[in-house]
Design goal:
Length: 208
């Protein structure tokens, strides 16, 4: 009797088999551990993918500079490099892709094709990027900072004129401008947990 009471208290039946409640807790623990590993791997994959993509994009951008033609960074890509952003104080060097939909933005900053082309001498060029990868550096920009926009026609230096937070449901960036103007856009706040919020952090730069 003493043996049987001790065995049952430890979570086994008299024949040494594990009791159902303990078995269920074991499998629940394994399931939670597996879910945590999947989430951690996904979180680590996004920055890794962004970094690898930039290496391939840098190569395609050098090819575009050499011959002035559009070069896809990988065979199945539906976008191409159109410019390059450089901010020396923050160590930024990023290739800009054509298009600002979800697919190009997964690999780098994207140029809004409805805005002025990066090499335009007038109009507003709008470039967007994700706040947690390619455009995380926008939070460290200061008024007066220089940002170089390289195109096939050569580099052009812009300086930060102002920064503002706007509601994308109410605010639209005007693309008509007498001179050249560069606008960098990302989601805000930078440390937000929920994705796809309506608020935007907008950095407006003027040519020197």
């Amino acid at each position: 009797m003493i043996f049987r009471a001790t065995a049952t208290a430890s979570g086994t039946d008299p024949r040494g088999r594990q009791a159902p409640p303990f078995r269920a807790r074991r499998w629940l623990g394994r399931a939670l551990m597996a879910a945590a590993m999947v989430l951690a791997a996904n979180a680590a994959w996004l920055p890794a993918k962004a970094a690898l993509a930039q290496q391939l994009l840098q190569s395609s951008w050098r090819s575009a500079q050499a011959d002035g033609r559009a070069h896809r960074p990988w065979p199945w890509a539906d976008t191409h490099a159109v410019a390059k952003l450089v901010q020396r104080r923050l160590g930024v060097s990023q290739v800009v892709l054509a298009g600002d939909s979800g697919r190009p933005l997964a690999f780098g900053p994207g140029w809004a094709e409805s805005s002025a082309a990066p090499a335009s001498v007038s109009g507003t060029t709008i470039i967007s990027g994700h706040r947690d990868t390619h455009f995380a550096w926008l939070r460290d920009l200061q008024r007066g900072d220089a940002v170089t926009l390289e195109t096939a026609q050569g580099p052009r230096e812009f300086h930060v004129a102002w920064m503002q937070v706007v509601d994308s449901r109410l605010h639209r960036i005007a693309t008509g401008h007498d001179g050249a103007q560069l606008v960098l856009v990302t989601c805000w706040p930078f440390d937000a947990i929920a994705p796809r919020g309506p608020m935007r952090y907008v950095v407006t730069l003027s040519p020197r």
